[in-house]
Amino acid sequence: MEYIGVYVMTLVETGGIFAPLFFIALHLLRPLLFLPVVFLCVTGGVLFGVIPGIIYSVIGITLSSFIFYKMAERMPDTMNRFVRMKQKLIGHRADLTTAQIAILRLIPFIHFHLLSLCILEISVHLKDYMRSSFASNLPLAVVYTSVGKSITEFSPLIAGSVIIGILPFLYILRRKEIYISWQDFFGLKSTSTGV
């Protein structure tokens, strides 16, 4: 991966006016090259600066999410494998909110498209999916492009502390559901007959 990273940075640095297009294209090719999203966002901050890096990363990540949506429509068997993997990792009844997914995207160890699947499951249609994807991709791009190299230099102790610090937010931002029993909903009173 180190060689790919050096090659990517060299390609984008020497791209001239096409460098932003190369960078956005790398976001689209990222799954094929096994490049983490964090790496590309940090690279965008180093090469383009904070604001342009954020803009290019958001465009690239959001286009990648769009491609995932379209592939999900065309490849149902692959989606079923993703769903089974999600159920093993997160659980059967775990419906995450967009805010929770945005926080989980900040954790570099969680698969990007697994979280895209979570957005897909809570979305009604493409417009809703793209809105939720954009909302969950924005914090990722802002944090990793802004912090840049310092996030990659965290010690395991600091990284673990950050993850443990994020966990309470997952509970606070959970989807709140109220379960009402059949009797309570219809106002039925149980009667006991001594027959």
Shape: globular
* Total E-strand runs: 0
How many H/I helical runs?
11
Output the radius of gyration.
21 Å
Please outline the major beta sheet.
none
Query: Uncertain spans, ≥5 residues at pLDDT below 50?
Result: none
Helical percent range?
Answer: over 70%
Mean pLDDT over all positions: 81
Number of domains: 1
**Secondary-structure content class:** mainly alpha
How far is the N terminus from the C terminus? 76 Å
Strand content: under 5%
Order of helices and strands: HHHHHHHHHHH
InterPro entries: TMEM64, VTT_dom
Main location: membrane
Subcellular location: Cell membrane
Family: Belongs to the TVP38/TMEM64 family.
Write the topology of this structure.
Blueprint: H1 2-13, H2 19-33, H3 37-48, H4 50-74, H5 76-89, H6 98-105, H7 112-122, H8 126-147, H9 149-152, H10 156-172, H11 182-186
Helix pairs in contact: 1-2, 2-3, 2-4, 3-4, 3-8, 4-8, 6-7, 6-8
Observed structural traits:
mainly alpha, 195 residues, 11 helices
Describe the structure.
- This is TVP38/TMEM64 family membrane protein.
- It comes from Paraliobacillus quinghaiensis.
- InterPro entries: TMEM64, VTT_dom.
- With 195 residues, the chain is an all-alpha fold.
- It has one domain.
- Helix content is 74%, strand content 0%.
- The chain contains eleven helices and no strands.
- Helix 2 packs antiparallel against helix 3.
- The chain is globular, with a radius of gyration of 21 Å.
- 24% of the residues are buried.
